[in-house]
């Protein structure tokens, strides 16, 4: 039985990961700030990951076979984690946004983003930059490390409300703000990324891996799945979520080669849209 520590895991697909690991027979400990009760059948530790002394006190002498870090956003957090957690393997939930500076017309492979300069003294970090630097910190540590670069997540209890933005506007007959030529990106359903992260946690590979459903989508595709007569307004900036001015599709062949089979967006997009309407 693997001893697994999950950082975060209190909401959205993170909670689903905890439940899947538990149901797979892992000995699961969840560590977060206690904003919501942990699922039954797991150990729940309460601490602020930014408080190094508090983390050490909450963990005591505990060690783990693997840590799944759902809530690491900066290199400072990664540095603290590298010092505090005793584990044989570290897995970080990263993001497609690590590729936000890549310009390509072919699906993006993991090798396009590797180590980057780390600035531990920055006042703040953009989302993609913070994740890039955090990956770099973990990769340089002695503990075997894997990062899961997650596509845009749709479905489930999505607190970001990005798909809801499209559904509400288009159902009301309003226009969606888009770039002049919206480009496609990669998406994944909340339940599927929970499946993937649980699978990745119990695996033994290292290095970055992209995770996303087959079937790229643009803002136009999303709108067409919601409305038979979608309306659009072209803007130069402040476009709707998921409207991209660059090709941003993930190459998921590494994950497939490691043994995971992804769904296709057409398998679940319609239901995700209907779930938003019901909610």
Automatic annotation (TrEMBL):
Parts of the chain that traverse the membrane: none
Coiled-coil blocks: none
Domain of life the protein comes from: Bacteria
UniProt xrefs under Gene3D superfamilies: NAD(P)-binding Rossmann-like Domain (3.40.50.720)
InterPro entries attached to this UniProt entry: Lipid_A_modif_metabolic_enz, NAD(P)-bd_dom_sf
PANTHER family: BIFUNCTIONAL POLYMYXIN RESISTANCE PROTEIN ARNA, UDP-D-APIOSE_UDP-D-XYLOSE SYNTHASE 2
Protein name in UniProt: Nucleoside-diphosphate-sugar epimerase
């Amino acid at each position: 039985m693997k001893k697994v520590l999950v950082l975060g895991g209190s909401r959205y697909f993170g909670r689903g990961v905890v439940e899947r690991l538990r149901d797979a027979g892992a000995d699961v400990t969840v560590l977060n700030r206690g904003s919501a009760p942990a699922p039954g059948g797991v150990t729940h530790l309460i601490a602020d990951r930014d408080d190094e002394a508090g983390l050490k006190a909450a963990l005591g002498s505990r060690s783990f076979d693997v840590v799944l870090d759902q809530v690491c956003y900066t290199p400072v957090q990664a540095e603290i984690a590298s010092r505090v957690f005793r584990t044989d393997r570290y897995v970080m939930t990263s993001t497609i946004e690590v590729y936000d500076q890549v310009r390509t017309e072919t699906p993006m492979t993991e090798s396009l983003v590797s180590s980057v300069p780390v600035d531990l003294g920055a006042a703040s970090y953009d989302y993609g930059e913070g994740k890039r630097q955090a990956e770099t910190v973990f990769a340089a540590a002695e503990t075997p490390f894997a990062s899961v670069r997650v596509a845009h997540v749709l479905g489930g209890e999505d607190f970001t409300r990005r798909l809801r933005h499209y559904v509400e506007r288009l159902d009301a007959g309003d226009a969606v703000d888009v770039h002049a030529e919206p480009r496609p990106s990669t998406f994944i359903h909340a339940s599927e990324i929970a499946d993937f992260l649980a699978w990745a946690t119990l695996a033994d590979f290292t290095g970055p891996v992209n995770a996303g459903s087959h079937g790229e989508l643009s803002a136009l595709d999303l709108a067409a799945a919601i409305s038979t007569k979608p309306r659009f307004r072209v803007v130069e900036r402040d476009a709707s979520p998921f409207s991209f001015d660059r090709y941003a599709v993930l190459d998921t062949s590494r994950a497939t080669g490691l043994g995971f089979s992804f769904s296709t967006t057409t398998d679940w997009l319609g239901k995700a849209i209907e779930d938003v309407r019901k909610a």
